[in-house]
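Subject: sequence -> structure tokens, single chain

Hey, anyone have a minute? Need the predicted structure for the following. Not urgent.
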Amino acid sequence: MRISGEAVLEAPVEQVWNAVLDPAVLVRTIPGCEQLKVTGENQYDMVVTAGVAAIRGTYTGTCELRDLQPHESLVLKAAGAGAPGTISADVKVSFAATDEGATLLTYEAVAVVGGMIGGVGQRMLTEVSKRLAGEFFSSINRAVSYTHLRAHETREDRGCRLGRVKKKGGG
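Reply:
Had a minute. Here:
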């Protein structure tokens, strides 16, 4: 099965790159991720709960980020198995700056699915995979946007956010 797509993330490439390489961000942003354990440099054991249609389950597996070209591209290699079946995927991810200072992230994935979940049908698997990718990138976007905004807030903004100060001019 092949899927591809893109997302615009509202932060500079360097910040998005750092977030994608940060296990603390990944565990919060990968849909269904229950556990992400560092086993080596950019290598993880993981536990993810996911499903397609009525077939849901928990998968244990590995994830590795490799072929890193800083701030340009990487390859995510993942494999997992659970009661509903098996999955392995290679995902090439590219990062590019936009004129507005955001990041255009594009991905191309090749996945092999086996077991009960493989019998669901490629069309449904493709749609679910795209939805999960969209959820992941939306979560990453929220994480980097929050960090980006916090890095650029003023002392007055910080006081307002914490409820300590009222913004001048009525805000």
